Amino acid sequence: MKPGSGTQAEDRLLLLVPTSRDAQLSEQILGRAGVTCTTCPGLERLSAELDRDVAALLIAEEIYAVDHSGLLAAWLARQEPWSDLPIILLARPGSDSETLTRAVEQLSNVTVIDRPTRIATLVSVVRSAIRTRRRQYQLREHLVLRERTETQLRETVEEVRTLLDTLPIGVVMTSDTETSHITGNARAHALLRVRTGEKFDGRVRVFDGDTEVPFERHPLTRAARGENVVAEHVDLRIDDSVIHAMVWATPLRNLRGEPRGALAAILDLTEQRRAELALRESDRRKDEFLAILAHELRNPLAPVRTALDILKRETQPGTRQNLHEIIERQVETMVRLVNDLLDVSRIARGTTDLDEQIVDLRQIVRSAIEISQPLIAAGRHRLSTQLPPDPVRMRADPLRLAQVFANLLNNAAKYTPVAGEIAIRVDIADRQARIVIEDDGIGIAKEMLTEVFDMFRQIREGGQKPSSGLGIGLTLVKRLVEQHQGSVVAESDGIGCGSRFIVHLPLTPIDGSSKTFPQSESAFSLRGLRVLVADDNEDAAAVLRQLIQMLGGVCGVVNDGEEVLDALRADKPSVAILDIGMPHLDGYTVARRIRALPEFDDVVLVALTGWGQDEDKRRSREAGFDFHLVKPAAYDALKAVLAPLVPAP
């Protein structure tokens, strides 16, 4: 039944009487009583009118008798649950007929009135039927409103559920103060490992540190009994795993303000806790590294200082030569330490370019063995080498790759007890080189195998202090190998079982012969070369001048950038070696001023500085420098720059 247009339609009385005269008379009588009537000329019209809002039906027995198809009974059977249309049946005079009996059985809400009927009786029965129908329409409106409310409630619940399921924190709720039934959002199910449909109850144990929290002190339990829990740190243990969490819990209250349940939010801090622990470990390694760095730098400085004290008093040539060698070795150690630090920094920032050449991998391995030989010999280790008989040509930076294998050999020598066994082997297969460096030393714990390449990570044996070194050698190895498009892994059967490092490098078919490392001459002469050194470090400038003079050159010194131009005009040198970080005028500014003056076009400018990054070298070129040397400049580096500038005799 469709809703009508208003109260007037809902109060209509349908009339189905034998004659039009009966209809007019009924409409007049009921109209005076305030009843709106609609006369139906036949059963077909009745069906259409019943589909609209109607208050009741007044039908004569003889009309109902001809409803052989059961049209009225069928319509009544289709009524909605709230509807029970009142029917007033006008019976013919006399005893109960078969039609009357059938009507009472088939029409559920029927009132029978005998004819002739008193007007007061008819009006009273009709008004009673209309009032009954009004209550049915009120029930209909109530049901419609309830259905609309329930739909809105279901939609709201679904919206809230969707909102909760999108939250990155777990939310659990209990609807009773005993927390006997707990539900949760999607994140809570995932966090607490509860599958959909499973119960949360009893799955989680709550700990405060190492102490298990009793059930009555659980955050959700306390909130269900009226307590507010704010940002409480707890550990949630589920099976064998632990979740570090922060919990907020609040009571749910009824209309009287009494607790009826609780809601709790669980923020997973496990990854944050891991990150904090990793940061603390990183800080610990950094502190340990700085302590080791101080120790490693003090070690070579001690003999240097002692040797200098002796040199002040010793005049014997043999003793002085020995002291010179000691100083040279220790300075080389300090330079190597600083260079390793710079290498790690450059590689980590991706600012290192490889000087790739066509090389023979065998020659690189031999160079690495030569570099590591003093440390191997000091430990009285036996080194076995297995190299392919034919050249292994590849494109690589020979110095960097030799540094990789030297670092691995040095590690093997340091972490192998005296008179140990060290082996290096090169295999070729599937256009790849496999370099294995193996020892029978102290070994590596299995949990450390993936960490040995971390910055500042050092291998320890039985809780002892780490071996000498900064803990950056293997980091350099990994980064340099990766720059060569290769990989490196560490293997060990555990502490005391030795270790094995395996490097894989790709081989590219290359035509032509491999290049070998250039060999430097032992000495050279600077006779006839005039040099100006500008450095605010007076000792550094004086030592460099002494070296140039020892090699036969003429050298002047200034200690301030503002003095350079005057010195160039006075001494007329062919080469100016300028420190970058001078006061008043830095080396870049001095170089630009020199290049702006045509009278100094033939002067070769050499930057000598502690800054050696690619960006620093670029700035040097832009300022007008011809060469860039990094302090402390090695003898061979100075020779490579100055030797070609010596005038012909």
Question: Topology, pairings included?
Answer:
Blueprint: H1 7-10, E1 13-16, H2 20-32, E2 37-39, H3 43-50, E3 56-60, H4 61-65, H5 71-77, E4 87-91, H6 98-106, E5 110-114, H7 119-166, E6 170-174, E7 182-184, H8 186-191, E8 205-208, E9 211-212, H9 219-224, E10 229-238, E11 241-253, E12 259-268, H10 270-313, H11 317-348, E13 357-360, H12 361-378, E14 382-386, E15 393-396, H13 398-414, E16 421-429, E17 432-439, H14 473-483, E18 487-491, E19 499-506, E20 530-534, H15 538-550, E21 554-558, H16 564-571, E22 575-579, H17 587-595, E23 604-609, H18 614-623, E24 627-630, H19 635-642
Parallel strand pairs: 1-2, 1-3, 3-4, 4-5, 14-16, 20-21, 20-22, 22-23, 23-24
Antiparallel strand pairs: 6-7, 6-12, 8-9, 8-10, 10-11, 11-12, 13-15, 16-17, 17-19, 18-19
Helix pairs in contact: 10-11, 11-14, 12-13, 13-14
Short description:
Helix content is 43%, strand content 21%.
What would you say this structure looks like, in words?
With 649 residues, the chain is of the alpha/beta class. The chain folds into five domains: 7-143, Rossmann fold (3-Layer(aba) Sandwich), CATH 3.40.50; 167-268, 2-Layer Sandwich (Beta-Lactamase), CATH 3.30.450; 278-348, Signal transduction histidine kinase, dimerisation/phosphotransfer (DHp) domain (Helix Hairpins, Orthogonal Bundle); 357-506, Heat Shock Protein 90; 530-645, Response regulator (Rossmann fold, 3-Layer(aba) Sandwich), CATH 3.40.50. It is 43% helix and 21% strand. It has 19 helices and 24 strands. The strands form five sheets. A seven-stranded antiparallel beta sheet has the order 7-6-12-11-10-8-9. It has a five-stranded parallel beta sheet with strand order 2-1-3-4-5, sandwiched between helices. Residues 1-6, 461-468 and 511-522 have low confidence and may be disordered.
